[in-house]
């Protein structure tokens, strides 16, 4: 049974490390801020989840499992929200989109919000 748990733990640790590596590659390869944030947020969240699950399986103690679960819930709750807020702030401040972007669905909502709530300069 111990060998099976070690192999399962190893699998999840490698799974998590691969996803974090893919997120790093996405950070280098994606053409603009918004695509970079999307790639890194998704892959890092899944990668950290895999690594925490592997750690929890390896140690198998209640204290380690509960801490790993708490860390995963915290990351799951904060990473997408923070990436969304950073993306909205960057978009509002005029960070350019990738030149091959076809649809900009947020533009009409931003323009509408500025018309309804003009900011005095």
Question: Could you explain how this protein is built, in words?
Answer:
The protein is mainly alpha-helical. It has one domain. It is built from 4 helices and no strands.
Give a quick summary of the entry.
The chain is mostly helical and 121 residues long. It has helices at residues 2-29, 33-59, 62-92, 105-116.
Topology:
Blueprint: H1 2-29, H2 33-59, H3 62-92, H4 105-116
Helix pairs in contact: 1-2, 2-3
Can you tag this structure with a few keywords?
about 120 residues; elongated; mainly alpha
List unreliable stretches of 5+ residues.
none
Helix content: over 70%
- β-strand percent reads under 5%
Q: Can you tell me the number of structural domains?
A: 1
Shape, please? elongated
What's the total number of strands?
0
| Ends apart, CA distance between termini | 68 Å
SSE arrangement, N to C: HHHH
Structural class: mainly alpha
- Rounded mean pLDDT is 88
- The number of distinct helices, counting runs of at least 4 residues, comes to 4
The radius of gyration computed from the alpha-carbon positions, rounded to a whole number of angstroms, is 20 Å
The major pleated sheet works out as:
none
């Amino acid at each position: 049974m111990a060998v099976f748990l070690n192999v399962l733990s190893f699998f999840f640790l490698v799974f998590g490390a691969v996803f974090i590596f893919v997120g790093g590659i996405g950070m280098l390869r994606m053409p603009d801020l918004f695509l970079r944030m999307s790639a890194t947020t998704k892959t890092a969240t899944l990668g950290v989840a895999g690594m925490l699950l592997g750690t929890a399986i390896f140690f198998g103690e209640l204290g380690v499992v509960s801490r790993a679960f708490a860390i995963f819930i915290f990351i799951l709750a904060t990473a997408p929200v923070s990436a969304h807020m950073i993306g909205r702030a960057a978009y509002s401040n005029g960070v350019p989109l990738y030149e091959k972007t076809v649809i900009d669905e947020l533009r009409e909502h931003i323009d509408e919000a500025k018309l309804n709530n003009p900011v005095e300069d």
